[in-house]
Amino acid sequence: MGSCSILVGLLVASSFSFSKACPNELLENVDFPGSDIASLQSPSVEHCQQLCTQHPACLFFTFIRSDWTRDNRHFSCFLKSTPSGQPSSQAPLLGVTSGFSLKSCNPDPRPCFSQVFQDVDFLGADYRALFTPDYQECQRVCTQDPGCQFFTFLKGEFTGQNFRFKCHLKFSWSVPRTPIVEKKAGVTSGFAQKAQQTQELDTPCQNQFFANTDIPGSDLEQEKSVSVEHCQVLCSAHPKCTYFSYSSDDFKCHLKNNLNDLAAKPKDGVTSGIPAHFCQLDDTWVKQSYEGVDFRGSDIRFELMDTAELCQSKCDEDPSCQFYAYVDESFSDRAEWRRCFLKRVITMPAPPKVSKLANVVSGFSLRDCRK
What is the tens place of the pLDDT at every residue in 77-101? Predict the structure, then answer.
């Protein structure tokens, strides 16, 4: 009878969350089974909830906590969605916490994560390591380094003696990236004017681009970008990018990592360049609209609009929108005409892997906590 009362109480709490404009309740030991659209790693339920909030399609989630005992899926954050916007079902389950996207709560686009996690490793995404006396100093270094989003510190009691007191600085993308960029007649794409793509600095950058020039090899990552200036922003944001090559034919931005040499060769349709640091990058590419270009995927929703200019204005009005694609009446599929697709991607710090590990401490940069 007692367990039944608890379950009824949880169901009432869940129903109440749907009726609220800002459903910020967390349901401990309640699972929303099925309806998964993505699975990410997260150190806490609060972080998982922010991942759901920033994901374009996530409406609710289930997080597997560190006290989960059934298998090794600790720190898994299952993002979920249904056409109704509500979980299809829910069930009591020890070791999980479920909740809802905060999209309707006017969320902070750069949330502060001040909690540190004892005996938790943020595995991967390293770009630099140094030795510090404690995790507090490691976190201060991370906060001061523009490229650092999170860190892992190995304590003095760590098993590997040679790695004790080591501070690993780690990177994840904090600027919006367009996952798919392709040529498509009848589509116009662009960016929200409100979006801050780079740091605001007083000194303008003196850009150095090499037209019809490729720098082959030394590839670090390949991203999609709509222009060479956009590609330079991505390279400048990544702490390991030493130079880049951009192909205008397929919108490929090749980020390179080579600290020893820069060996260029002629190649039509490719522009190469060098990242900029501590200066203000040119942002005219953000203000442009790109006819015949589709930013495919990452849809929040679509609305009917008469022009691409109105679509861009709608994206600016929506706090969640980072970029858009508008389908005009020259598009091949009449059913798509006048659709304005509002889009976004996750830009908050997101470790690629979270796991238990004795005598380590992990946490996040505190830059976004200084507001």
Answer: 999 999 999 999 999 999 999 999 9
